[in-house]
Amino acid sequence: MNLDLSEYMGAYIDGSRENLDTMDRMLLSLEQNPANTDAVEEIFRAAHTLKGMSATMGFEKIAHLTHEMENILDKLRSHKMEVSAAVIDLIFETFDVLRTLVNDSIESTDSNIDLSEISAKLSTMANGGAAPAASSSPRAAASAAAPAKKSAAKAAPGIDLSDMGMSEFELSSLDEAGDDGKHAYMLHVSLVADCLLKGPRIFMVLRTLDDLQCDIVKSNPDVKDLENEKFDRTFKMVIISDKQPEQIRDGIESISEIETVEVTDISSAGTGGGQPAAPPPEPARPAAPAASAPPPAPRAQAAPAPAPAAAPVHAEYNEPAGAAPQAAAPQTAQSAGEPGQAAANEEEDKTKEVIELVQLVTFTMAGETYALEIQQVEAIINLVPITRVPKAPNHIDGVINLRGEIVPVINTRRRLRLTEIERRASDQIIILSFEDEKVKAGFLVDSVQEVIRLPESAIEPPSRVSESVDVEYLRGVGKIENHIIILLNANRIVFGKTPENS
Questions:
Q1: What is this structure's pTM?
Q2: Dihedral sign (CA 125, 127, 128, 130)
Q3: What φ, ψ does residue 486 adopt, rounded to 5°?
Q4: Could you tell me the CATH superfamily of domain 5-145?
Q5: What residue segments make up the domains of the chain, in order of their start?
Q6: Which residue, 71, 183, 69, is CA-closest to 127?
Q7: CATH superfamily, domain at 357-495
Q8: What is the per-residue pLDDT across 105-164, written as a single tens digit (0 to 9) for each?
Q9: How many other C-beta atoms can be found within 10 angstroms of the C-beta atom of residue 225?
Q10: pLDDT digits over 258-275, tens only?
Q11: Fold (topology level) of 162-265
């Protein structure tokens, strides 16, 4: 799908320049000290980030070249290749081409760079040879090494990639994954029918994939559309990872409001033969179904009821061990043949139905876990440039442009009188919407964690939570097992007052 480049170009320019500067700095450090493994890691991360940004913006030359550069860097960081003068020279040469390409993308110019020669050098080096001299047709030589594998990947049995709209470059990346011992997977995820705020769930899926070091090759719908909730409740992704399919599936299943997760190996080296990966062996569960099909996802029991019962709420904090038995316990069908027990269970279920649950988005700051009510949360975004506003209140860091709308950003640490730190790339902004006041505001936080449910009865008054945090900005304190969650009063933080009905 086509992106409105003007909306994201500012962030792309800032990010690409920052990553180029990091690569330049670390390359000089690596040249001076070839044993500096930290420099290799920094260069790899910068190249990986630049690749993702460029692919999103449609700058395929940059994405292609950084991908080939990554292959070399990955072998260096995993000690499959030694850092030599020839390797460093080739990375410097690649970096010079990258800088020119990025400048072209920023200035809307075209230096007419032919990538065939540098691509051939990188490919030869990655395959254990010395970088060749210029060739009349180096790209043909580079691609001739594995023609059979490309055909195998395109023709993976049982998998139809036609609806993914993958380019030749994206298809070739599936083949190259096998060279590094990685697998290409088709990921198919469905959210529950009554999912609240799909955007935060997408954010958590993307964060889980990032934590598992999965590269997203293609997404349908596009990732930006997923983040903006422009989809029904299912989506597919082609990803590359060195993790096992059950690791990926379990990681995504651990997110609330996820109904089903399918991970299918589509790489030529995969043992799945284009079939969904079998679930890992599990301990016997009470009254587990005897069918041969894999058991439903642990989170699926939250789907049918708009107001879930207390047991699934508890299960969200006991994962993975113990979660399934807890969730299965309330089922009255377990007690078939015992009328007295069945009646007791039915009465217990009726009691649980009236438990009022509060759904929260949790995040960390200064070593504590805080939360905001999800009803007010409109979106969760990564840190973007914040423009300072003269004479703004001290706790307002500035404003951001959110899809054409100017939104003020509150420095949440400063507002709560917590110890302040410099902004980091990992910081995030939670966008809240205040319907009565017809305004939006962003809360700058360290790291968003998850969406949880908490019984209203488990929330206590905010007395002496922290000596530094003003109680007037707190709604209450929740406790799950031995974990404290501090609920913030968003209205008082933004407006310095609390609505009459709160």
A1: 0.41
A2: negative
A3: -95, 115
A4: HPT domain (1.20.120.160)
A5: 5-145, 162-265, 357-495
A6: 71
A7: CheA-289, Domain 4 (2.40.50.180)
A8: 888 888 888 898 998 899 888 887 654 444 333 333 333 333 333 333 333 445 667 788
A9: 16
A10: 889 999 998 753 333 444
A11: Alpha-Beta Plaits (3.30.70)
